[in-house]
Amino acid sequence: MKKTIMLFVSLLLLLSIALVGCSSNEKTDVSQESGGDGAVKIKVFAPQGAETDLETNSFTKLAEEKFNIDFEWQTTTFDATSASEVRNIALASGDYPDLFLLIPWVDQFSQTDLLRYGKQGVVLPLNDLIDKHAPNIKKVLENHPYYKAMATAPDGNIYGLPQLNECFHCSYGNKLWINTDWLEKLKLEMPTTTEELKNVLTAFKTQDPNGNGKQDEVPLSGSPSLVESSVIPYLMNGFIYDDSRSRLLLENGKVDLAANKEEWKEGLSYIKSLYEEGLIDKGAFSQNTEALQKTGNNAEAQILGAATSMHPGVFVSEAEYQKDYDAAAPLKGANAAYATYNFPSSPGGAFVLTNNASEEVQIAAIKLVDYMFTQEGQIRSHFGEEGVSWRKHQEGDVAIEEKAEPILAQIPSKEGEEPRNDSWGAMAQYYQPREFRDGWIQATDIYSPEGYERRLQEATHLYEGKEPSETFPHWAIWIDPAVADEAAMIRTNIEDYIEQNSLQFITGTKDLEKEWDAYVQGFEQLNLKRYLEIMQEAYDNSGL
Q1: Do 431 and 164 meet the contact criterion of CB atoms below 8 Å apart?
Q2: What angle do CA 75, 124, 78 make, to 5 degrees?
Q3: Concatenated DSSP letters for 377-429?
Q4: Helix, strand or coil for residue 302?
Q5: Which of 101, 405, 406, 425 gets the most CB atoms within 10 Å of its CB?
Q6: pLDDT at residue number 306
């Protein structure tokens, strides 16, 4: 009996040691996930601008306190190439963070990335987290069909959150800006048709509107380095719809290509006529935006008559010159008077959780981004501190959309002021629907720096609703992973083929009349039929 009791006591002792050991291990694991004060430690990969220090940033501090988080930052610059390389190297090596917080125009996960890493288990689906811990995100997904389509993969999973940033003036980015000071000097009206534009450009070239006695004027310019600055889409829209990106059409739910139609040929013929008469700058088809700005800012005399771009700041920064440019509405051509529409948010993943994130980290992270889907959280995270970087509306303030209720006004930095470092800026633009952006307060003088956004808002009303009744929603389309590589290769080949041949036809290195049929037949070798099948299936499966 005594031996039995001693054995029993020994077993209890061993069991208690084992339990203590397990408890100790559990505490160790938790301490690795949490900061010294019990905060949840989250390793984050993010881009960081020159005037921001995410470690000491006041919104970082607020987020850490509000959500009991301890951030550990791995940062890159705003250089897109470098940021993408660093992200891909980290993923390939296996040494990646818990969370990626990215800026779409710097670098983010593409839809293909999300599908690939999601299938590998590297990227976590967010559906359950959103359902249980993110009521604001859930509401936005329910109320914004495009956003839901952009975020939801073909298998029903949400592997990353794109930003919803309904920038009105970005929705119609392919605009034409004309020097209205020159129009006034030459007693000309703003052109409304393609032929009227040709007459205006001819007058700019021949009638010395800058008054220096030289024929040094550049009637029309642009740049292919930004899709919105290409001269082709704006001019082509008088003949056939050009969405400037996919070059796909949608009619009665059927997907087709624009660039092999007779109307496209008519558009090329018109653009070619402008080029042959010296009305389009030769550099418009090859120069970068720095070269375009050099023309717009020419020191000796103002020489630029018109340019295609999203906004005047792309082609001219000299204040005295910039105020002279106003937007022309879509031009009536032989067949149409369309405006290029593109949904202003980019599909892909800006907020992405990896399989290195513990459950505790996942919950803290989704609650943080859910806060940015509230107006309070969006303002604080994107704009900064109230009274420092923004203020509430006051009597006499006018919203950027005059019928909208004023919400906030940004407080400009003073000359020589130290960086405020009080917001995450573009990294936090998760929920900016148009009704929110319409409430931003701007000066009523649209030619002042403080009224610049209002100027773009007013210009964009000239384009609003001028797109076809159906447009191919390439921004919300997911390609079946089984054919994603095939589709990407065909798409690249087709888009390059369109660009190269359009340039050759316009500049005359190819004869538009004699070589058009061969150009159209060339799409057969590029598997256009198969490409349209893939895109049709993707569109049909999108639910849009």
Answers
A1: yes
A2: 20
A3: HHHHHHH-SBTTTEEE--TT--BSSTTSPP-EEE-PPPTTPPP-----GGGG-
A4: coil
A5: 101
A6: 98
Cα angle 168-172-173, degrees, rounded to a multiple of 5: 105
Q: Report the alpha-carbon distance of residue 259 to residue 119 in Å, rounded.
A: 35
The answer to whether residue 7 scores a pLDDT higher than 60 is: no
340 φ/ψ angles, rounded to the nearest 5 degrees: -75, 125
Question: Cβ atoms within 10 A of the Cβ of 376, count?
Answer: 9
| Contact indicator for 363, 124 with CB cutoff of 8 Å | no
Hey, what are 42's tokens? 């989250």
Q: Parallel, antiparallel, or unpaired: how do β-strands 325-328 and 175-179 relate?
A: antiparallel
> In 277-332, which ranges are continuous DSSP H helix?
289-296, 319-322
Side chain identity at residue 77, one-letter code: T
Helix ranges, 56-188 (H): 58-67, 80-93, 111-120, 127-133, 135-143, 145-151, 168-171, 180-185
Give the residue among 335, 424, 429, 415 at the shortest CA–CA distance from 378: 429
Q: Give SS3 for 272.
A: helix
pTM of the model: 0.87
Q: Residue 96: phi, psi to the nearest 5?
A: -120, 165
Query: Look-up: residue for tokens 């029309």?
Result: 220
In the chain, what percentage of residues exceed pLDDT 90? 89
Which of 16-30, 42-56, 279-293, 366-380 shows the lowest mean pLDDT across its residues?
A: 16-30
Asked if pLDDT for residue 542 goes beyond 90, the answer is no
At residue 317, what is the residue type? S
501 DSSP assignment? H
β-sheet bridge partners, residue 352 = 100
Helical packing angle, 484-507 and 111-120, nearest 10°:
160
Distance in angstroms (rounded) separating the CA atoms of residues 171 and 232: 17
Sign of CA dihedral 349, 350, 355, 361: negative
Closest to 488 in 3D by CA, of 81, 71, 110, 222: 110
Cβ–Cβ under 8 Å, residues 351 and 161: yes
The values of phi and psi at residue 392, to 5°, are: -75, 165
Asked if 279 and 231 count as a contact pair (C-beta separation under 8 A), the reply is no
Report the distance separating Cα 254 and Cα 259, nearest Å. Answer: 16
The three-class DSSP label of residue 473 is: coil
Nearest to 408 by CA among 382, 433, 379: 379
Angstrom distance (rounded) from CA 341 to CA 343: 7
**Residue 21 corresponds to which tokens in the numbers above?**
């050991």
Q: How far apart are the first and last CA of the chain?
A: 79
Instruction: State the sign of the Cα–Cα–Cα–Cα dihedral 349, 110, 464, 469.
Output: negative
